[in-house]
Design goal:
97 residues; alpha/beta; Rossmann fold; four-stranded parallel sheet
């Protein structure tokens, strides 16, 4: 099966999604969105747990996984990943416009 993402996935902060999406898609990345600010803690935690499970699965299947992060959910994502025995994806900086 041919994967259009080229086996690359970016975990992107909600606040950076609009500015990141075109560049990441042009480079063949699939995108996993982090939760937006203002959600209740239970919803945020569940979202981060689900994201961590996806990251773990992509890593098991040798995908490149990068993090485009604004810092809002860094600690929560790192905690969820650590529970699964997965390290934090490397950070990626977007090109300046």
């Amino acid at each position: 099966m041919n994967d259009p993402r080229s086996r690359k996935v970016a975990v992107v902060a909600d606040s950076l999604l609009d500015t990141a999406i075109d560049e990441l898609e042009a480079e063949g990345f699939g995108i996993i969105q982090l939760p937006p600010a203002g959600l209740d803690p239970e919803t945020t935690d569940a979202w981060l747990e689900q994201t961590a499970e996806h990251v773990a699965e992509f890593r098991r299947n040798d995908y490149e996984v990068v993090l485009v992060d604004d810092g809002l959910h860094t600690e929560g994502l790192n905690t969820a990943l650590a529970r699964l025995g997965v390290s934090t994806p490397s950070s990626r900086r977007l090109r300046a416009d």
